[in-house]
Specification:
By secondary structure, the protein is α+β, with helices and mostly antiparallel strands. It contains 14 helices and 27 strands. Strands 5, 6, 12, 13, 14, 15, 16, 17 and 20 form a nine-stranded mixed β-sheet that branches. Strands 1, 2, 8, 9, 10, 11, 18 and 19 form an eight-stranded mixed β-sheet that branches. Helix 1 (about 15-25) runs parallel beside helix 4 (about 105-120). It is globular.
């Protein structure tokens, strides 16, 4: 029987991200994927600056950006050509994490990049055409029985923990008998992905066309692919959409000389939320734990955040730094954020799937008024995790940021020059001087990097000064998943922040 630190069931982008994070940290991982290769189909198309920062951390960023395209506007129009603009989200700015705020990609390219860096750690074993068929856990670990889908051969593997990243129809979730609460169900959509044979551009590049005869949307998928979606009416089925019918739908944009068809599934958007994302030593992440409508582009992103949040917990547990009960805060740490993104995706999407003429008229009038008043803005990210955060701290769970810094004659983004993991960022010399050798040793054991701005590290654009001012603090402790654990002002408050953090690790729960 093979023995590893972590078993990962499902090797899509979320499972790959977890494997890469754990592999980089030095832990052995066995990943099992029932499909025959990575990226059996393209689903996700968008990531934000936080996820690009995470991809940079694991080493996949440069390869992803070779094909990914920056995403400047997210529009809603009455028609794809010559339609009236009803709503525009300006996505052109650099995000708080130091990268362009929004990117589009073609999922097979993204997965290939993450897969390469995960395997390059030398700690990740991936087996395709392999499905999990049985799980058993005890006080010391989890045993999984897996089966080769081609030969039927079975084998067992033992891990300290097991993570289900195996999608909306998760075997792991079913095996753990975790209930699922269903939320809003959306309309059916025909999804057509194409590869461009030659570069093309349209008036509407990324967004929705709300033609009531057949509403839909189109998006760039990186630099060489596009996605078109069309409403599927109740009387229609997938069989109605023959290849000839697909080309009829695509005719306003191009034909076989312009595009190569890649996939054409008919899907229905569905919200789901597993009641818990942990059973003992087993966890659920990504679509195995939650699904949402795609209109905010946060489904895959949320799953990757799950992976990042779970990875640092396992890392501290395996190093003997944290009490095992730190894992018990995982569900609470992530669920509120995912619920907020789910609500936001629905709010963005509901106006785009209307068919009733009266509703459409009211929607258009409302959107026109908001656009005229310049009242439309891409909303900020929902609140972050607070299940492992400083108690009573109003900054807890706030999103982190990344600016340009300089150390000596080197200038670059913070992560590149300073590093990853827990980071204590401070402009307070008094606070840093007050950290005695015992505290410094304890923080070092955890892997906390201490970054003093103004002395060793120059805040090139003043971004950190502005951020600390917004937090009303001179010191902030940031978690490895880029969320604020807590912030402080002055040496006494700073030591209280650090002592509370160290205590929270050893006693598990806040």
């Amino acid at each position: 029987m093979d023995t590893v630190d972590v078993i990962v069931v499902g090797y899509g982008p979320v499972g790959q991200t977890l494997c890469a994070l754990l592999g980089h940290a030095g832990y052995s991982v066995a990943a099992f994927e029932r499909n025959g290769a990575i990226a059996g189909s393209a689903k996700a198309i968008h990531c934000d600056d936080e996820i690009m920062r995470l991809m940079e951390r694991i080493g996949a960023g440069p390869e992803i950006r070779e094909d990914a395209a920056t995403w400047a506007t997210y529009d809603t129009r009455t028609a794809a050509f010559g339609g009236e603009l009803l709503r525009r989200f300006d996505w052109s700015a650099t995000g708080p994490h130091g990268w362009q705020a929004h990117w589009s990609f073609y999922q097979p390219h993204l997965e290939a990049a993450i897969d390469r860096v995960a395997r390059a750690t030398g700690r990740v074993l991936v087996r395709f055409n392999t499905e999990a068929i049985e799980l058993a856990q005890d006080a010391d670990g989890v045993t999984a029985t897996v089966r080769d889908t081609a030969t039927g051969e079975q084998r067992t593997v033992r891990g300290r923990h097991l993570v289900g990243a195996d999608g909306a129809n998760s075997f792991v979730r079913q095996a753990l008998d975790v209930p699922v609460t269903a939320g809003a169900s959306g309309t059916k959509r025909l999804v057509i992905d194409v590869a461009e044979r030659r570069p093309k551009s349209f008036e509407l590049e990324n967004g929705h066309f709300l033609d009531p005869r057949r509403p839909g949307c189109l998006f760039r998928l990186g630099r060489s692919h596009r996605r078109f979606e069309f409403h599927v009416f109740d009387h229609e089925s997938r069989a109605d959409f023959t290849e000839a019918r697909l080309w009829d739908l695509l005719e306003p944009w191009g034909g076989p000389d312009d595009f190569t068809l890649c996939q054409r599934p008919v899907i229905r958007f569905q919200e789901t939320m597993a009641d818990t994302w942990q059973r003992g030593r087993c966890f659920l992440i990504g679509d195995a734990a939650h699904t949402m409508w795609p209109f905010a582009g946060q489904g895959m992103c949320s799953g990757m955040r799950d992976a990042a949040t779970l990875a640092w917990r396992l890392h501290l547990l395996y190093r003997g730094i944290a009490h095992q009960s730190i894992l018990d805060t995982f569900t609470a740490d992530r669920m509120a954020n995912v619920r907020a993104w789910t609500d936001r995706a629905r709010a963005v999407g509901e106006p785009c799937v209307m068919l009733d003429p009266d509703q459409i008229e009211a929607r258009n009038a409302t959107m026109r008024a908001q656009l005229a008043e310049q009242a439309v803005a891409a909303p900020p990210a929902p609140p972050g995790p607070t299940a492992f955060a400083r108690v009573g701290d109003p900054t807890a769970g706030a999103g982190g940021m990344q600016g340009r810094v300089a150390i000596g004659d080197r200038t670059g983004l913070f992560d590149e020059l300073v590093g990853h993991g827990f980071v204590l960022i401070s402009t307070s010399a008094d606070t840093l001087r007050a950290i005695d050798p015992d505290r410094a040793s304890a923080l070092g054991d955890v892997g906390v990097t201490i970054a003093r701005l103004g002395a060793e590290i120059t805040d090139v654009d003043g971004a950190y000064q502005r951020w600390l001012s917004d937090l009303d603090a001179d010191t902030v402790l940031v978690r490895p998943d880029y969320h604020v654990y807590g912030a402080s002002t002055g040496a006494k408050d700073g030591l209280d922040l650090l002592d509370g953090f160290l205590s929270a690790l050893t006693r598990g729960v806040r």
